[in-house]
Each structure stands twice: as structure tokens, then as C-alpha cells.
């Protein structure tokens, strides 16, 4: 499957805001704090990714079809995944892993991927992806809020070799 990250332009905001609703809907299953408003929308999508130079919004495409988004915070000396979302129909098919790898490769250096403690699926996903990507060279820091995965993407990485291990 061909996975592509495309920088989201200001014209892409409506697309992003629509995907944001699905993202928060998924979270509402895990955390009851998320409720729809009187219009039936969750709202609260961050707009600063189009306004601040250290914020980078990307849309994820799988075989040319919209599949999700990734928001990257590039704050020296570390990059962070702000939010990461892959639509359910594209999960368990390598889309998330390939999108994560493309994100890491786009911004070389130190990374921190934080996951809330109640999002067990995301913890499992990021632990597996980051372990493969770094060949096990990463740290986990845990607190009451969740887990932070810390690593540096200076290791040589053969994506095709790693992906064949997943698909094979």
C-alpha cells in the first residue's frame, strides 16, 4: 500500500476538522470527558498548526485515499507527535506504521511520543513501531498521565526490510 504524508495547507483545514471529529469520537470511547456539543460536534480542533512555524499538520493518504492525519510539534531540541490518527478501515494494514516512519524521517533528531495512560491501543502501537524503528534503542518514561517514548532517529533504517517483517 502506498502511504503518503501531504502537508496540510490552510485550504485543507475543513478536511482536517472533519477528521478531527472521528479522532475525538475514538477518544470518547476511552475517556468520558469527551462530549458532543448541542450541534452534535466535538469541536476543539487545534488551529495553531497553521499559524505557528514550529507546528506541522499533515494529512495521511493510503493509495491516494484520505486515511488520517499527523500533527508534529517541532520544538528544539525535540520533535513531538502532537496528535496521530488513522481511520479504522486503514488500521492493522501498515498505514499507521508507514505514516509514523515518514513523520520521523521528515524531522531528523530527538523525538518524544507521548501517549495517555488510558489509550492502551496507542501505547501498544507506538511501543511496537518505535522499537522496530530504533532497533530497540529508545526510552520509556511513565507517570500518572501516561508514557513518553524518547528516541533519536539517527540509526540507519531500512523501511522495506522492516515492513517485510510485518507483512511477511
In brief:
With 168 residues, the chain is of the alpha+beta class.
Write up this protein:
The protein has 168 residues and is of the alpha+beta class. The chain has a single domain, classed as Aminopeptidase. Helices cover 31% and strands 30% of the residues. The longest helix has 16 residues, at 13-28. The protein is globular and about 45 Å long. The two termini are 14 Å apart. Residues 159-168 have low confidence and may be disordered.
Features:
168 residues; alpha+beta; Aminopeptidase; seven-stranded mixed β-sheet; 4 helices; 31% helix; globular; disordered C terminus
Class from secondary-structure proportions? alpha+beta
Total individual domains: 1
Report how far apart the termini are: 14 Å
Which homologous superfamily in CATH is the superfamily?
Gcn5-related N-acetyltransferase (GNAT)
CATH topology: Aminopeptidase
Q: Order of SSEs, N→C?
A: EHEEEHEHEEH
Low confidence ranges:
159-168
Largest sheet: 7 strands, mixed
Overall strand count: 7
Based on the structure, what is the oligomeric state of the protein chains?
single chain
Strand order within the widest beta sheet: 1-2-3-4-5-7-6
Question: Average pLDDT across residues?
Answer: 87
Q: Name the shape in a single word.
A: globular
Secondary structure elements and pairings:
Elements: E1 3-7, H1 13-28, E2 55-62, E3 65-75, E4 78-86, H2 95-106, E5 110-116, H3 120-134, E6 139-142, E7 146-152, H4 159-167
Parallel strand pairs: 4-5
Antiparallel strand pairs: 1-2, 2-3, 3-4, 5-7, 6-7
Amino acid at each position: 500500500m502506498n502511504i503518503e504524508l501531504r502537508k496540510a495547507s490552510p485550504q485543507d483545514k475543513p478536511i482536517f476538522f472533519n477528521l478531527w471529529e472521528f479522532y475525538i469520537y475514538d477518544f470518547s470511547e476511552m475517556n468520558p470527558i469527551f462530549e458532543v456539543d448541542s450541534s452534535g460536534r466535538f469541536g476543539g480542533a487545534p488551529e495553531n498548526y497553521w499559524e505557528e512555524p514550529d507546528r506541522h499538520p499533515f494529512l495521511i493518504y493510503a493509495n491516494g485515499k484520505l486515511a488520517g492525519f499527523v500533527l508534529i510539534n517541532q520544538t528544539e531540541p525535540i520533535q513531538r507527535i502532537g496528535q496521530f490518527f488513522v481511520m479504522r478501515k486503514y488500521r492493522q494494514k501498515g498505514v499507521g506504521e508507514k505514516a509514523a516512519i515518514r513523520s520521523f524521517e521528515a524531522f531528523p533528531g530527538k523525538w518524544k511520543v507521548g501517549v495517555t495512560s488510558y489509550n492502551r491501543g496507542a501505547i501498544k502501537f507506538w511501543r511496537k513501531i518505535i522499537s522496530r524503528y530504533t532497533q530497540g534503542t529508545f526510552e520509556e518514561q511513565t507517570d500518572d498521565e501516561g508514557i513518553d517514548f524518547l528516541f533519536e532517529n539517527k540509526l540507519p533504517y531500512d523501511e522495506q526490510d522492516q515492513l517485510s517483517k510485518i507483512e511477511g
